[in-house]
Amino acid sequence: MDSFAMVFTIFVLAAFIGFEVIAKVPPTLHTPLMSGSNAISGIILIGALLSAGAQHTWLTAGLGFVAVVLATINVVGGFMVTNRMLEMFKRKD
Amino acid sequence: MSSGLVNIAYLVAASLFIFGLKGLSHPRTAVRGNQLGALGMLLAIVITLVDQSIIGYEIIIAGVVIGGAIGAILAVRIQMTSMPELVALFNGFGGLASILVAGAALLEVPYLVGSGSVALNAQFSLSIFASGLIGAVTFWGSLVAFGKLQGKVNDGAVRYPADQLVKILLAIIALVFAYLMVVYPDSSTPYWLMVAVASVLGILFVIPIGGADMPVVVALLNSFSGLAAAATGFVLFNTVLIVAGTLVGASGIILTIIMCKAMNRSLTNVLFGTFTVTEGGPSADEVYGGKVKSTSAEEVAMLLEGAKRVCVVPGYGMAVAQAQHAVRELFDLLEGNGTVVEFGVHPVAGRMPGHMNVLLAEADIPYERLKDMDEINPSFKQIDVTIVIGANDVVNPVARTDPDSPIAGMPILDVDYSKTVIVIKRSLSPGFAGIPNPLFAADNALMLFGDGKKAVEDMVKSLKDELG
């Protein structure tokens, strides 16, 4: 199997898992789901770290730096605000 | 570290994301689920940082510190009523990051090909194209959505002549640049020109969509931000980017479909359709003329005192008026008086999926009392008093009765079946659909005109007097 077919297989299987898992999230938690998935899409940080860290040219390092800032906002902000919301949903007795 | 080990660590991170999302299937397990997701992210980041191709950490540390501080401040400071804006902004940041990472990868082509980590072929160029295209549409579309949610951009449905044609034309131009990217795979020029075209496309894509359709747009852009990350995963041949991005893509698409179903409209209709205000329907005067009964907070308090079962139906108006804490006070008083209080939440109430639930949770309403549409609808006949706060189209019985109405067939909350309906609203002005609501003139309906928060506070005050 060539490498493109392989990553494409991963993509399709991940889509199936995503649909299965997320279809079970109740409407009450749809907003935390969105902010939580914001945080997960901050995974682009991985790509940004590689560009910012490899520093092949000043330009790639600069693009990487801005991308690191943006993606970190998503990761840190996303997980924190989701946590803040979900704590409110916890039963308070 | 060997690439085999790195890939195993990425697999563990991806699994943690899946377990994390699974945790979101119940409020009890959700906090832990979110923490698992964060753990997965931490693992993926640490593993990437020990990668041998990273030679300097100064830029990374500076970026993480700045981004982390901004993210933390936003997360702590944001008001729950503004969550739709924050999510729109985060969607946009994800899109912009994808554009930049793909653009950097293109500049790194001589090094990447040299090290054998990518091959300069059509797949590589098209993956970069997809990252830039989806990223740019997401970024600019999200900024427009953010502006509309903030009220800084016209939140009506902005139309102009030949608007669909302009968008199709821009999409074709973007495809021409995609072709040029494949022909000149190591040139950055076609890429950045394509990003410019896609940026205009992103703006024009969201501009014509009205405020009440924002839940669909925010959900769709959420999906796009994930897909942009997945596309970048194809560029870098990075599995964790592909899996995580795709999970988010799937999540956003599911939410988009749910929102569309809740409005009985197709996605195409929301995105490109004209939500036409039909001519010839009954006018406001015909529907309301002499039949609308206005009430006072004191009268409502008397009704509530004797009620066994009360349902509150919140809408965007509750968010605007920040009335959720006043509603909580009313909830406590009524529960203390032996009344069962439930909340009927329509899927598209508010400006994003689950918007109302978050506001009510913020006000400490137990989540068991938040009922979705299918759950609450069969109970309305047994409910003594339903209080509608700032909702209109989602409780308009015309959706059931008039097949020619623009909202015909849209699932609604059947509040008109309850014994008495109190509608808290500033005026009789129509909702987003632009049609009068016969509910306001129904025999069992009473209008309480005024600001949502003030009205509920007055009700609380009167009820306190009533209960002594």
Largest sheet: number of strands, sense, barrel closure of chain B: 6 strands, parallel
| Largest β-sheet summary of chain A | none
List low-confidence stretches of chain B: none
Report mean pLDDT of chain A, rounded to a whole number: 91
Any descriptors?
heterodimer; A: 93 residues; mainly alpha; 0% strand; flat; B: 468 residues; alpha/beta; 2 domains; six-stranded parallel beta sheet; 6 strands; 7% strand; elongated
Description:
The complex is a heterodimer of chains A (93) and B (468). Chain A has 4 helices and no strands. With 93 residues, chain A is mostly helical. Chain A has a domain at 27-89. Chain A is flat, with a radius of gyration of 17 Å. Chain B folds into 2 domains: 78-272, no CATH class; 284-467, TPP-binding domain (Rossmann fold), CATH 3.40.50.1220. Chain B contains 19 helices and 6 strands. Chain B has helices spanning 3-23, 27-49, 58-77, 83-107, 109-114, 122-150, 163-183, 189-206, 214-236, 239-262, 267-272, 284-288, 297-305, 316-321, 324-336, 355-362, 373-376, 398-401, 452-467; strands at 309-314, 340-345, 370-372, 385-389, 420-425, 445-449. In chain B, α18 links the parallel β4 (385-389) and β5 (420-425). In chain B, α6 runs antiparallel to α9, α7 packs antiparallel against α8 (189-206) and α13 crosses α19. The radius of gyration of chain B is 26 Å and the shape is elongated. Chain B starts with a helix and ends with a helix. The mean pLDDT of chain B is 90. Chains A and B meet through α1, α2, α3 and α4 of A and α1, α2, α3, α4 and α9 of B.
Topology diagram in text:
The complex is a heterodimer of chains A (93) and B (468).
Chain A: H1 3-22, H2 30-41, H3 44-54, H4 58-89
Helix pairs in contact in A: 2-4, 3-4
Chain B: H1 3-23, H2 27-49, H3 58-77, H4 83-107, H5 109-114, H6 122-150, H7 163-183, H8 189-206, H9 214-236, H10 239-262, H11 267-272, H12 284-288, H13 297-305, E1 309-314, H14 316-321, H15 324-336, E2 340-345, H16 355-362, E3 370-372, H17 373-376, E4 385-389, H18 398-401, E5 420-425, E6 445-449, H19 452-467
Parallel strand pairs in B: 1-2, 1-4, 2-3, 4-5, 5-6
